[in-house]
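Late entry, magnesium ion complex.
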Amino acid sequence: MADDQPKFSFIIPLYNECEIYSELIIRLNNLIDKIQEPCEVVLIDDGSKDITSLLMEETAYADPRYHCLFLSRNFGHQFALSAGLEFVRGEFIMVLDGDLQDPPELFFEFYQKISEGYDVVYGVRKKRKEGLMKRASYFLFYRILKGISNYSIPLDSGDFAMMTRRVAKLIVKMPEQSRFIRGIRSWVGFKQIGLEYERQARGAGETKYTFKHLLKLGSDGIFNFSTFPIKLITYLGFISVFSSFIYFLYTIYRKLYYHDVPSGFPALVFLIILFGGIQLISIGIIGEYVQRIFSQVKNRPLYVVSKRVMNSKDVTDE
Ligand code: UDP
Ligand code: MG
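Prediction complete; structure with ligand written out below:
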């Protein structure tokens, strides 16, 4: 560990958070004073249009434990976090929102788990102090994602987490453009554990995640971590083809025993369902290739080694 490397880093993205800013800094200062180990706080301004960036500068000039990154425009929460993760120097990294919905004081509980040997400790939201609609959509989203994703992504957990440096660096290494950090974080593997906490109501200001942003985040989660939507097309195709044959047999049966089948019409229906199905299967096949191209261009590492034992010694990669 380099001499000036802090032991703990906090990453906090901020977008138009001037209303809560001073309270955030007070809470952070109190926390850092209690920790009694070298800490750094990396604040990322995600292109704020209010005075957040000025306030950040003021803090960073006055206190060397604070570092600031100013993005050139609003790139979005996930990108601001990625910038922070890339910049950070600490051995253990805590990621939290700037609106105090994730209590920074959970640091001690998180670190307790890290000291027990976990690489990632993430917060699991026990209760959300948010509107019914938002709670219901999150609830559904995480269950759908868990049901169809190719990796196990924990339920009800966001980006609020503490991780070791090697996990942070692996997340940064992932070159995917549409970022769903909580998914990448669990993809990385190692020992991970969730800690339940009560998600607070926003300290001040309004949510910066509009419905549109949430939809984008949700679809990034689903399409980056699941191949189910593509497989679904193929399944529908097979169901369609199968139903067309059932319909065909049923028509013959009616024709033979009831003689009430109009001529021409059933053949048309049969062909429409049959060819609809064949087209769906064909799209599904193309989808399989597209999916493979997609996973190739995402260019994730093929595997992650957590430890090597060589010449009778443990070697841990960063
Ligand atoms: N945020 C950001 N860029 C954005 C939107 C949000 O950096 O484009 C920050 C925001 O300042 C906050 C955190 O990300 O610190 C979470 O955002 P928010 O509280 O609005 O989301 P919610 O908690 O409502 O899902
Ligand atoms: Mg929030």
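DSSP finds ten helices and nine strands in the chain. Will revisit in the morning.
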